[in-house]
Design goal:
About 20% of the residues lie in helices and about 50% in strands. It is α+β, with helices and mostly antiparallel strands. It has one domain: Lipovitellin-phosvitin complex, beta-sheet shell regions (Roll).
Length: about 350
């Protein structure tokens, strides 16, 4: 057989499987239809335990029984956030306008034996919030859709409950990996943000603002260096919906310096009582976890999400206080650990058709 004739027969045989391989690339992208709706229910559960705690006052270490049984049981935090999202418009993988109705808000917190539902957490229930992208400020304008509501409740809300930070930039094939990074990763841990609880007490409100400004700034810096390893596991069927599955895992650490924040809080509380204090405080975090994002390939938005993680917190505080002619020193260190789980499920008008 002539070489040219052999090549003319062999090339199609080589090209066919290669073409088939190229067709397997999937587009896992945020592209919901205008005005499509999706009901989402997010649950968060965690319990923190004090593994080690020591306090030294004026050079003397306090015995464990004087610290109120802080190590006897865990601190429980459970939350449920159920919403209906209307994707009014989007472009280029970004929300342009979203209407979010808060159907149910529940927060339970406290020691394991005495945890209570926090009534203030549900203040946004039955309200619809509008998120509109503003090109000039490059931020979302948040307001009540009917123009009536407590604006402070919107302070900590975020438009993203679809985990957009985990999506790949390009089409992917099964087994492809990429690295997600940037400040937007904060929404992985706080999808949609957290409803604020405005205080009627001016001092409490001022302290809350200080805490938010300082703490959020440092968290943003920490997340700017945080990275999540993602792998595309291919497509599967879930409840009659074709989903693209993104598995991910992470491991990291971060340090927060809360000295200035704590100093300001102490100064505010001391007022004119003649109390002077000099404190330093820091928190170190170690965390690792893994999870999966199930993406509705036809609807172009989240279908389901689950994540589990381990968190360890190390806190150190040193201070010197002068009050009523006496000077006292204090040192405190604590190690706190916990396990946390996140889960989000959806139903949408696309599923019902």
């Amino acid at each position: 057989m002539k070489p040219t004739k052999f090549l003319s027969l062999a090339l199609p045989l080589v090209a066919l499987p290669l073409a088939g391989f190229a067709l397997r690339a999937d587009k896992v992208a945020f592209q919901p239809e205008a005005n499509a709706t999706a009901q989402k229910e997010l649950t968060f559960e965690t319990t923190f335990y004090v593994d080690d705690l020591s306090m030294v006052v004026d050079g003397n270490e306090l015995p464990a029984e004087m610290m109120g049984g802080a190590m006897d049981e865990g601190l429980l935090i459970n939350a449920t956030i159920a919403v209906t999202d209307e994707y009014v418009s989007s472009k280029g993988g970004r929300f342009l306008e979203l209407l979010r109705t808060y159907d149910e808000l529940m927060l339970e917190a406290g020691s394991e034996s005495e945890a209570e539902v926090q009534d203030e957490f549900s203040d946004l229930e039955d309200s619809t919030v509008s998120f509109k992208w503003d090109e000039d400020s490059e931020e979302y304008v948040k307001e009540f859709a009917d123009g009536d509501g407590e604006e402070d409740l919107l302070e900590n809300l975020d438009v993203d409950m679809d985990f957009l930070a985990l999506l790949p930039d390009d089409e992917v094939s099964e087994g492809d990996s990429w690295e997600a990074s940037g400040e937007q990763l904060g929404t992985i841990f706080f999808p949609g943000g957290m409803p604020a609880n405005p205080s009627t007490d001016e001092d409490e409100e001022e302290m809350a603002e200080l805490f938010q400004e300082e703490f959020e700034t440092q968290l943003e810096e920490a997340f700017s260096e945080f990275k999540i390893d993602c792998t595309y596991a291919g497509k599967s069927e879930s409840g009659g919906v074709t989903v693209g599955v993104i598995d991910f895992e992470f491991e990291g650490e971060s340090s927060l310096d809360l000295s200035d924040l704590l100093q300001e809080v102490i100064d505010m509380q001391a007022g004119d009582q003649g109390i002077e204090a000099d404190v330093t405080a820091s928190i170190s975090l170690e965390f690792e976890g893994k999870g999966s994002l199930h993406w509705n390939m036809e609807a172009g938005h989240v279908h389901a999400f689950e994540m589990n993680g381990d968190i360890t917190l190390f806190a150190d505080l040193e201070g010197e206080v002068d009050a009523m002619g006496e000077s006292h020193t204090m040192e405190m260190s604590a190690e706190v650990s916990g396990e946390a789980s996140w889960s989000l499920e959806t139903s949408s008008n696309d599923d019902e058709e």
